[in-house]
Design a protein that fits this description.
The chain starts with 7 loop residues before the first helix and ends in a 27-residue tail after the last helix. The chain has helices spanning about 10-15, 40-50, 50-55, 70-75, 85-95, 140-150, 165-170, 180-185, 215-220, 220-240, 240-250, 255-270, 280, 290-300; strands at about 25-30, 60-65, 80-85, 100-105, 110-115, 130-135, 155-160, 170-175, 195, 205-210. The radius of gyration is 20 Å and the shape is globular. Helix 2 packs across helix 10, helix 2 crosses helix 11 (about 240-250) and helix 5 crosses helix 14. It is an alpha/beta fold and about 325 residues long.
Length: about 325
Amino acid sequence: MKNMRTPAYTLLTLWLIGAPTASMAEEKFTFLTNWYAQAEHGGFYEAQAKGLYQDAGLDVTIKMGGPQVNVMQLMAAGQADCTLGDNGQALETWQAGVHAMTVATVFQHSPTVFISHDKIDKPQELKDKTFLLATEAYTSFWPWAKSELGFGNTKVRPYTFSVQPFLADNNLVQQGYVTSEPFSVAKGGKPFYVYPLSDWGYPPYGNSIICMADSVKKRPAAIAAFVKASMQGWKAYLQDPTAGNQLIQKDNPKMGADQIEFGIAQMKKYQLVTGGDAQTGGIGIITEPRLKKTWDMLVKNKLIDADKVPFEQTYTLEMIKNAGVTP
């Protein structure tokens, strides 16, 4: 097919009525994930493997993020049309002058967890422990944990994405993703306990789809088509991940089948994709009240200035409202 862009109105029509004919050109679209390819990205790879993006009139390239990759900066620099991140990132980068909008989400709640050697009844029981935190924690969940969970004077140490320090010291608490770190910790052979921050009231979505506001304005049909095909991919991936997993391991050969299997099992166990509002609104749904809770949290913890980040401009419900992908 020729490398030329289909007019927006054509894409919108395709998105509404179905697949393009073979003679129609596909519009190029680049999506940047927030880490190396893994099960948490499975729906996007499944959509790629099953030709769902092509059916939607898109020629999609999936690029991997990583620990040293600032996905928001790369998107702002034109290296991607949309990226994957905590929906709080869209708010914080808006204040930094990068006007990005949340358009949909993969996870209905944050997959961020604390992992402890001790079983507890309430989060305040961890306040005397030492926490292992990555740099991003200080602009996301840690200010919230300090103000809401009583961790204001808690000691912290850097988390270097190795669980060995945690395994060696029973006084440590490990941050992590429910789909990832517990898999590595389990190999240590010691008892441990996983506490999702969303259970304690942490409000952000997880793995939200974030696009530049200018892109949303100029390419709404393409973004809506990408969002719908992606959510169809997620539904298919949770039913049979075989095709998506092949592409994940092609992009990230170090990703073992056992790690992928664990990630999928955790996504299902915690209903990250299919729970919450997805039960009634469909996979990928976002709502104004949920988004506002994150905005309020960031304002309260002085991570953003309410006067500099106009809430109503930092998201749109238009890209996901007609997707209609039931769990």
